[in-house]
Amino acid sequence: MALLDRLMRSWWASADLHKFRAGATEADIQEFESRAGWKLPTDWSQFYLFSNGANLFKECLRIYPLLGGERSLLGASARLRRLNWRVPEELWIAGDDGLEDHFGLWLPCATEEKAPVVQTGEIFEDDNLALAGSSLRPFLAANSAYLLLSSEATPPLALDIGRNRALASGVRTAMKRQFCKWKDVGALVPIRTSSRIWSSLKVAARS
Questions:
Q1: Which of 26, 61, 93, 150 is most enclosed, with most CB atoms within 10 A?
Q2: Phi and psi torsions of 85, nearest 5°
Q3: Do residues 145 and 167 touch, judged by C-beta distance below 8 A?
């Protein structure tokens, strides 16, 4: 929970950039799991208990609610497939960057505690999948740090989310390497096919 706690403090310190929803209830999570046919990993359910979907950084990072139509964790993947996006059945779309890139939970590597985050690119890209985080919290930490450090107007308290004091004090060197470390994947790895990304993520999940 420590990383999620730091993220929440950072978001409250930069509250004008974000819009949160009321947290999901246990009944909401149970309904989602019943309809989806699988159990949310703890890392994901803890976020949804805090906020059942969110628009972060003026909608540069949008997390869909569990339920509620086509832009929800339950319905987003099916919507994109109907629009001819190349979304594997194993990928449950959980949000987007406000533009054309989406991200979601990769189900084959999910454990009781966590599940990797995979990003999708443009609709017609061949190499349109990339491993973006070992689970939700590292993914949110890396993206939050990047977006906060991209603005000179960010409140200093909002930067106090990471493992590296240099980042918290506003030093903006070697950022890319640090963000990739936070994601726990070493780097974003483009993968061509569903079977290849499954193999790569199985290795990542064990490391």
A1: 93
A2: -75, 145
A3: yes
Please tell me the distance from the alpha carbon of residue 199 to that of residue 202, in angstroms, as a whole number: 5
- Specify the pTM: 0.76
Q: Cα–Cα–Cα angle for 133, 71, 141, nearest 5°?
A: 25
Residue 87 forms beta bridges with which residues?
none
Using the Cα atoms of residue 79, residue 82, residue 87 and residue 92 in order, give the sign of their dihedral: positive
* Digit-coded pLDDT (tens) for 168-178: 443 344 444 44
How does DSSP classify residue 175? H
Q: What are phi and psi of 106, to 5 degrees?
A: -95, 105
Q: Is 113 left (phi over 0), alpha (psi -120 to 50) or beta?
A: alpha
Which residue from 154, 39, 143 is spatially nearest to 95, judged by alpha carbons? 143
User: Which domains does the chain carry?
Assistant: 2-206 (3.40.1580.10)
Q: 103-146, pLDDT tens digit by residue? A: 999 998 889 998 989 988 765 555 578 888 888 888 888 888 77
The residue count for the chain: 207
Short-list 111, 75, 110, 113, CA closest to 94:
75
Q: Quick one: which of 28, 122, 133 has its CA closest to 80?
A: 122
Q: Are strands 102-106 and 19-20 parallel, antiparallel or unpaired?
A: unpaired
Which amino acid would we find at residue 183? Answer: K
Q: Residue 190 is encoded by which pair of tokens?
A: 């483009």
Per DSSP, the three-state class of 110 is: coil
